């Protein structure tokens, strides 16, 4: 019975779990905000972050590297809570949406590549051409 309590109880104070999970999640959201859009694709950085953190924590719980299942479940709950809060804020508050989501950058206009935008987004001509071929588009190279 004592083993069950140790395995499924909390070995870390609840306030510390909530604080650590919150600080790490918010810090990672801010760090991901500076990553170029091309590296995250169409999935929002918050979604990627949530999946990575929850997957990592789940792995720790399964592999036994965590202090207790209760700790890991609370960490996961806090991360999922913040993901929901940020998604809700993005939906309801346009200013937050502008901070957390990137706008699309126009790379081709009127059949011509906009090289300044390509440099800004770190997209090579070869990458752009490959994507355009996938879409069946044509572009003038002048």
Topology:
Layout: H1 2-8, H2 14-33, H3 45-63, H4 69-92, H5 94-100, E1 108-109, E2 112-113, H6 115-121, H7 125-135
Antiparallel strand pairs: 1-2
Helix pairs in contact: 2-3, 2-4, 3-4, 4-5
Structure at a glance:
A two-stranded antiparallel sheet has the order 1-2. It has 142 residues and is mainly α. It contains seven helices and two strands, in the order αααααββαα.
Structure description:
- This protein has a two-stranded antiparallel sheet with strand order 1-2.
- The mean pLDDT is 77.
- It is built from 7 helices and 2 strands; from the N terminus they run αααααββαα.
- The chain is mainly α and 142 residues long.
- The chain folds into 2 domains: 2-100, no CATH class; 105-142, no CATH class.
- The longest helix has 24 residues, at 69-92.
- Structural category is mainly alpha
The spatial strand order of the largest sheet comes to 1-2
Query: Could you tell me the strand content as a percent range?
Result: under 5%
Model regions low in confidence, pLDDT < 50 over at least 5 residues: none
Mean pLDDT across all residues, rounded?
Answer: 77
